[in-house]
Amino acid sequence: MDALSGSDGKKARLLFWGEDLALSHVVRPLVLADAVRDKYEVIFVTGERYAHLVEGYGLTPRKTWTLSTDTFMERLSKGRDGWLAEEISRQVKDELALIEELSPDLIIGDLRWSLGTSAELTKTPYVSLVDAYWGPYCTLPPPTPEFPFVRVLGVKLSSLLMPLLAPAIFKQLAKPFNAVRREYGLKELAEYREVATHADWVAYPDLPALAPTADPPDNHRYLGPVQWSPTSQHPPWWDRLPSDKPLIYVAMGSTGRVGVVDSIIEVLGEMPVTVMLSTSGRLSDKDYPANFYTTDYLPGMEACERSALVICNGGAGTVYQAIAGETPILGIPTNADQYYVIDALTRQGAGLYIRSTHVSKRGISAAVERLLTERRFVERIGELNRELSQFNAADRFADVIESAL
């Protein structure tokens, strides 16, 4: 079987699975699926929430049950498992039924970590699309997100304890997955990062500078960032933005804390700046300051390119768009993913971040002032931009598929 043919001599059938807990985990595999659809038969599976985006690419999504984002994020905020064993069991049953129906030659999954079990049971080659910092070879220190114990012990002490606590946390997070694996007679996995990367091939949609690894095996490959922007039209004000003040792009994404935006609005409304605010459809109607221009969605790449500063939740999607636009970043993270990315970016000197539980008007104002006036942030993000230009995620992904098949 060559890279273009399945077992029946036809085009190889690729089954993409984008878990819709966050936008990025749907659009990343969607962009990659679109890049290879001329060579392979592509089937895309996701939940209801972002199915319309799949349709926008001319694909008919196969819809499946997925956990709600609110439930998932609430559990994580309380230091609990994101998924329960019965939910993972339900996912595996759905996956097994679909794999039996479709007989794919290769499965590609993003955050659908139950696929490691289903692919193993059906002996189907599987590529896990996962950020390198969720792999066991990552050299970044574990972040300190908004766990309940952090509020009790404080950030400084919790940060000192995290390297000691992380192994136990990762082992705990693997328990519901292992409970399901035991049901099917499969070997248990040591910890959460092994669950995330339990695949024949592992593809990192990252830059090594922001998600470094040490001696990963040959079946772990960096793709580079998978860039995506909504295809929505420019808002009516796009070509009428004032040019006499610094332009700031604010996009807190699909999972950022909505309450944080109120502080951002209050601070930036009093500063000599112009603000583009992407609400992601999550903010109710309110009176915005005169220097604010708002819409539900903006073409992120273009918005970053024309801005002097990007304010976001620190998630990889917007961060890599800002790097592509050579625009410094102020991150206000909440979950572990966001802390991993924005902390690494800050260590690189390309931005700053404020913990979402420590947001203050004074802190936002001071950070914005520094990022707009200190040249070193622009210089450092320019260096990251040059590293980014060395990666073509679509081409590297095509190489992974050929190796996997």
Describe the structure.
- Helix content is about 40%, strand content about 15%.
- It has about 400 residues and is of the alpha/beta class.
- The protein folds into two domains: about 15-230 and about 390-405, Rossmann fold (3-Layer(aba) Sandwich); about 240-390, Glycogen Phosphorylase B (Rossmann fold, 3-Layer(aba) Sandwich).
- The chain has helices at about 25-35, 50-55, 70-75, 85-100, 115-120, 150-155, 155-185, 190-195, 260-270, 300-305, 315-325, 335-345, 360-375, 375-390, 395-405; strands at about 15-20, 40-45, 60-65, 105-110, 125-130, 200-205, 220, 245-250, 275-280, 290-295, 310, 330, 350-355.
- The chain contains 15 helices and 13 strands.
- β8 (about 245-250), α9 (about 260-270) and β9 (about 275-280) form a beta-alpha-beta unit.
- The mean pLDDT is about 90.
- The strands form two sheets. A seven-stranded parallel sheet has the order 3-2-1-4-5-6-7, with helices on both faces. Strands 10-9-8-11-12-13 form a six-stranded parallel sheet, sandwiched between helices.
What does the main sheet amount to? 7 strands, parallel
Oligomer: single chain
Radius of gyration: 21 Å
Note the beta-strand portion.
5-15%
Poorly predicted parts: none
- The CATH homologous superfamily name of the largest domain equals Glycogen Phosphorylase B
And the CATH topology of the largest domain? Answer: Rossmann fold
Q: What class do helices, strands and sheet pairing give?
A: alpha/beta
Tell me, briefly, the overall form: globular
Helix content: 40-55%
| Name of the level-1 CATH class of the largest domain | Alpha Beta
Please report the distance between the alpha carbons of the first and last residues. 7 Å
